[in-house]
Specification:
Elements (H helix, E strand, L loop, with lengths): L7 H13 L4 H7 L3 H4 L1 E4 L2 E4 L7 H13 L2 H9 L14 H4 L8 E2 L2 E2 L1 H19 L13 E5 L6 H9 L9 E5 L5 H7 L7 E6 L6 H18 L4 H4 E5 L2 H7 L6 E3 L16 H7 L1 H20 L6 H16 L3 E6 L7 H13 L17 E4 L10 H6 L6 E6 L9 H18 L3 H10 L4 H7 L11 E6 L4 H22 L10 H15 L9 H14 L1
Parallel strand pairs: 5-6, 5-7, 7-8, 8-9, 10-11, 10-12, 12-13
Antiparallel strand pairs: 1-2, 2-13, 3-4
The structure holds 6-O-phosphono-beta-D-fructofuranose (F6P).
The site of 6-O-phosphono-beta-D-fructofuranose has 14 residues, from loops.
Length: 546
C-alpha cells in the first residue's frame, strides 16, 4: 500500500520537511536574486511564477522523486492511451480525446474513439452555426436568440464558467441563460424573461436521470407546450447526453440529441457536446480555439519533463502544503471579472475528483487527500476574506490569476488591477515586522504609547504562499489552456495520493436519502425512522408549509 510511512520518497520528504520547516521565503529571495525567474515557467501566453512558495531546489527535487516513484509518467501515458484508469467504474478517462487536435488514434477496447468524437464535433459545428445564422429557427420561424442550458454539476458549471469567461466573444443578438438548482427560482426567473418563440432549451445531462435537471426540463417543456403546442418541442429542445433511451423517454427526438460517452466524466465534459451553449454563444471557431488551447496544455503535460511541467509543479507544491505542512485549504483568485466563476468550477473539478479516502488498492488512506478549495474574483475579495489570508491563523496558499491585457481597457482600470494583484503576492510573502510597523507609526507622529498599543495589530507575519499566473488575455485559447492545466494538476495529485480521481460515489448517499424524505414532506409516507434532529426538522417544515 502507498502510505506516508511506506514510500521511500515520502520518507525522504519528511526528512526534507523537518530540515526546511521554518524557512522564510524572504531569506530565500535574499539569498538568490534570480529566484523569481528560476521558479517561473512559461507556456505560450501563460506565465506561472511559483517562486513565492515555500520551496527550494532540494524540496522540488524530493517532490519530483515522489512523482517518479508513484509512476506518474506511466499513469499519464495510461490516461492518454485510453487505459481504463477509472477503475471503480471500469472506464477510460478521455476528456483529452475531445480536444485531440492532432487527431492521432486513441483506442478503447480496440476501437479508435476519434471518428465518433470528430463526427459529434461536426454536428456541434453545424447546429451551433445554424442557430447563430438563423437557419435553425423556432417553431414559428423566429430566430433562436435565448439559449437556456438546463443542467447541474458538470453539465452546468463548465459551460456557465466558460460562457461568462468568454462573454466578450458572444454574438450580439444572443443571450445565454442557465437553470441548475432544483428550487423553482431558476425556472421562474428565466422563464419570466424569455419569449417561447425565440428560446432554445438545451437539456444537458450525462446520465439523463438527474432529478434537478429533469424536473427543470419538464417545467420548461410544459411552459413551451402551453405557449406553442406539443409540435414546437422538436424546434425548441435539444439534449446533450450519453443516454439515448432516457432522452427519448423524456420526449426529445433523438435527432436533436448530441452524444458523448462514458469515458468523459461530468466535470471534464465542457469540451464535449456539453459545450454546445459555448459554441452557440461565441461561435464554433472560438469553441475550437478553446479545444486547441487545452490541447497545447495536454501536449505540454504529456511531453515536458517534470521540472518544467506546469501542472506537475503546481500539483506537487499542493502536496507539499497538504501533506507536509498540514495545510488543507487552497484558494483560487482570478483577477478578472470574466473569470469570476472559475473558483466555483474548480471546486467541483478538484473536490469531486480528489475528495476521497480509499486508495486504488482498496485501503483507507493514512494521509490527507484533496484540500478545501474556495475563491472569488480580485480585487473584490481583497475587501472580504483577504484579511484572514494576511493576518489570520490559517495559512492558505493561493493562485493569483490575471490577464495582462483586459478586453475592457478603460482609463487606468487595468493598471490599478495589475498593481493590486502583484502587491497582494508581495505583501503575503514579505509581511511586515513589528519593528517596521512601529517605525511607520512613529513617522506618522504617533506617541510611544500609541505605537506600543498598535504595532502588533499593524504587523504581518508574511511567508504566506502564492502562485501568480499571468495570461496575456482571457481569450478562448488561453481559457482552454488554463482549465486543462487545472485538470492535469488534479490528475497528478490523484496519482500521488493513489486515489481514483474519476468517480464520485460520495454524492450518492444524500441523493438516496432525499428520495426517502420527499414522500414524508408530501404527506404520502409517515413515521419513517430518522435521527431526532432530522425528524424534528421534517415536522417543523411540514408545519410551516401547511
Ligand atoms: O451529483 C454529482 C454529479 O453526478 C456530477 O458528477 C455531475 O456532473 C452532475 O451530477 C450532473 O450529472 P448529469 O450530467 O448526469 O446530469
Amino acid at each position: 500500500m502507498f502510505g506516508k510511512t511506506t514510500t521511500k520518497a515520502w520518507k525522504q520528504l519528511e526528512k526534507v520537511f523537518k530540515h526546511f520547516d521554518g524557512t522564510e521565503m524572504n531569506d530565500l529571495f535574499a539569498a538568490d536574486p534570480k529566484r523569481g525567474e528560476r521558479y517561473t515557467e512559461q507556456l505560450e501566453n501563460m506565465l506561472v511564477d511559483y517562486s513565492k512558495n515555500r520551496i527550494d531546489d532540494n524540496v522540488m527535487g524530493a517532490l519530483f522523486e515522489l512523482a517518479r516513484e508513484r509512476g506518474l509518467k506511466e499513469k499519464i501515458n495510461d490516461m492518454f492511451g485510453g487505459k481504463k484508469i477509472n477503475t471503480t467504474e471500469n472506464r477510460a478517462v478521455l476528456h483529452i480525446a475531445l480536444r485531440n487536435r492532432g487527431n492521432s488514434p486513441i483506442y478503447v477496447d480496440g476501437r479508435d474513439v476519434m471518428p465518433q468524437i470528430n463526427a459529434t464535433l461536426e454536428k456541434i459545428k453545424d447546429f451551433s452555426e445554424a442557430v447563430r445564422l438563423g437557419r435553425f429557427t423556432g417553431y414559428t420561424g423566429k430566430k433562436l436568440t435565448n439559449i437556456v442550458n438546463i443542467g447541474i454539476g458538470g453539465s452546468d458549471l463548465g459551460p456557465f464558467m466558460a460562457c461568462e469567461a468568454l462573454r466578450h466573444y458572444w454574438a450580439k443578438d444572443i443571450k445565454c441563460w442557465f437553470i441548475s438548482n432544483i428550487d423553482g427560482t431558476g425556472c421562474a426567473e428565466v422563464l419570466n424573461k424569455v419569449d417561447p418563440e425565440t428560446t432554445l432549451f438545451i437539456v444537458a445531462s450525462k446520465t439523463f436521470t438527474t432529478i434537478e435537471t429533469l424536473t427543470n426540463a419538464r417545467t420548461c417543456r410544459k411552459w413551451l407546450v402551453d405557449a406553442l403546442g406539443e409540435h414546437a418541442v422538436a424546434k425548441h429542445f435539444i439534449a446533450l447526453s450519453t443516454n439515448k433511451e432516457e432522452v427519448e423517454k423524456f420526449g426529445i427526438n433523438p435527432e436533436n440529441m448530441f452524444e458523448f460517452w462514458d469515458f468523459v466524466g461530468g466535470r471534464y465534459s465542457m469540451w464535449s457536446a456539453i459545450g454546445m451553449i459555448i459554441a452557440i454563444a461565441v461561435g464554433f471557431k472560438n469553441f475550437e480555439r478553446m479545444l486547441e488551447g487545452a490541447y497545447a496544455m495536454d501536449e505540454h503535460f504529456k511531453n515536458s519533463e517534470f521540472k518544467h511541467n506546469i501542472p506537475v509543479i503546481l500539483a506537487l507544491i499542493g502536496i507539499w502544503y497538504n501533506n507536509f505542512y498540514g495545510i488543507h485549504r487552497y484558494g483560487v483568485i482570478p483577477y478578472d471579472q470574466y473569470l469570476q466563476y472559475l473558483p466555483a468550477y474548480l471546486q467541483q473539478l478538484d473536490m469531486e475528483s480528489n475528495g476521497k479516502s480509499v486508495t486504488s488498492d482498496n485501503k483507507y488512506v493514512d494521509y490527507a487527500t484533496g484540500p478545501v478549495l474556495f475563491g472569488g474574483a480580485g480585487t473584490n475579495v481583497q475587501h472580504s476574506f483577504f484579511q484572514l489570508l494576511h493576518q489570520g491563523t490559517e495559512i492558505v496558499p493561493i493562485d493569483l490569476i490575471v490577464p495582462a491585457i483586459s478586453h475592457n481597457e478603460i482609463g487606468t482600470h487595468q493598471q490599478i488591477l495589475l498593481a493590486n494583484v502583484l502587491a497582494q503576492g508581495e505583501a503575503l510573502m514579505r509581511g511586515k515586522t513589528e519593528a517596521t510597523a512601529a517605525a511607520e507609526l512613529e513617522a506618522a507622529g504617533k506617541s510611544q504609547a500609541e505605537i506600543a498599543r498598535l504595532k502588533k495589530y499593524k504587523s504581518f507575519s508574511g511567508n504566506r504562499p502564492s502562485t501568480t499566473i499571468v495570461l496575456k488575455k482571457v481569450d478562448p485559447y488561453t481559457l482552454g489552456m488554463l482549465v486543462a492545466m487545472y485538470e492535469h494538476k488534479v490528475f497528478t495529485q490523484g496519482v500521488i495520493w493513489n486515489i481514483n480521481s474519476f468517480d464520485q460515489f460520495g454524492v450518492e448517499l444524500g441523493k438516496k436519502l432525499a428520495l426517502n424524505i420527499l414522500p414524508e414532506l408530501q404527506g404520502t409516507a409517515h413515521n419513517v425512522q430518522h435521527d431526532s434532529s432530522t425528524s424534528n426538522l421534517i415536522n417543523h417544515i411540514k408545519k410551516i408549509r401547511k
